[in-house]
Amino acid sequence: MTGPTDRAVTAPAVDEPPRLLVAGLITLTTVIGVIGSLGAPLVPEIAKSEGVSLGAAQWSLTATLFVGALSPPLVGRLGGGTRRRTAALVCLAAVCFGTLIAALPLGFGALVAGRALQGLGFGIVPLAFAVARDRLPEERARRALASISIANVVSAGLGFPIAALAADVLGVKGAFWGAFVFTVVALVVGWRVVPPGDPSGDGPTDYVGTLLLGGATFCILLAISRAEAWGYTSARIVGLVAAALLVLSLSVFWLLRHPTPLVDLRVAALPGVLGAHVASLLGGVGMYLMMATVMVLVQADPGIGDGLGRSVTWAGLMLTPYAVASVLGNRIALAMGPVIGADLLLPLGCLAFGVSNLMLALWHDQLWQIALVMLVGGIGSGTTFNSIPWLMVRVVPATETGSALALNLVVRMLGFATGSALSVAVLQHLARGGHPTDAGYSAAGWLGLAFCLVAATVCGVQARTARRVLAATP
Question: Which residue among 77, 336, 381, 403 is least packed, with the fewest CB closer than 10 Å?
């Protein structure tokens, strides 16, 4: 908890009324959610405008998710003490710069680099949680955590139609210029509302753990995205998988022995926490398999392949039901939690993701079918991702809350990035003449269903364990 000394030296944001503080934090997470989702509906347009393959263009999304998978714990560690405000402003400035170079006509490489820098913005989310927890009374902090979580998920869904409309009207570069304006606003808001943290939270940063986790993640994503082009049993793919397993093993060894690890794996294994991480990882894979596939399906030209042949704006609009249903799913979770038990919300949410993937596998010939797929997926999102913060807080020690939430965001982003890369791998594997086919869309849906069913099963088992532990806790 923030001490008196910290309050005495806080920058301009220190004495902000709680309402203004919460509004500012929601603004930050909303902008970051919109920017983070910016690449998904633009992937086909980026491929056309930059003259690259669909698989290469997908890295404009995967690069953001890759960096976004590593930034939360690193930013959380850097911002855990008196460096909190500095860490937030540096991240927001990096997002601004990344958006700027993506908007400039510097080539495809610069665009991907800019998108990667935008991934640093995901570190703002756990930092916003920490600020709300430290600066607000307990009851108001609970409501603020829920509002921040909802804002982040809904903004990701709303970012799709916003980006799509901007791309249709202004082109791909115009969409990035519009995003640049939003990032500048976010930087100003961050300077105004983010206070410094508690000096007692200062400590060494685990850069070695960051490099190890980053190396393992990169090898996994590269192997998934290039397996079709290089061959699933080629020496390069086998080597990447072996390297990923080796580096991941070294990461676990390092994190379990480091005095201040990047992420605390022991906390991650607590009953009630492990289920949340599984839901974020496997449910995230299923969710992004569905979303990335839908973006390609809606825009694919039926004259040279299989698809609906609609504009990028239509593709973005398909995410609107997802955003609306996310809020609805959160309300359903809040109402059902006391009745069925909070721990059952995660397996139910994963099952909803599974149903949406099943619907995609079976029905993807009409826009209304796609809208229904996204509606069901949004309910799954609201039931799982928006519920995870307050589900985890029940069993995580107060001093480890920030670390646990940051790790959960890491595995969620890993799930998103893997799902994004898998969707391209599946569509390319079943392509005809280099263009996606109905068989590819169906296969992506079935694969997403498999991930979601495994997640629901594991979360159901974990729910029973968590209930027993909580019942035995005085």
Answer: 336
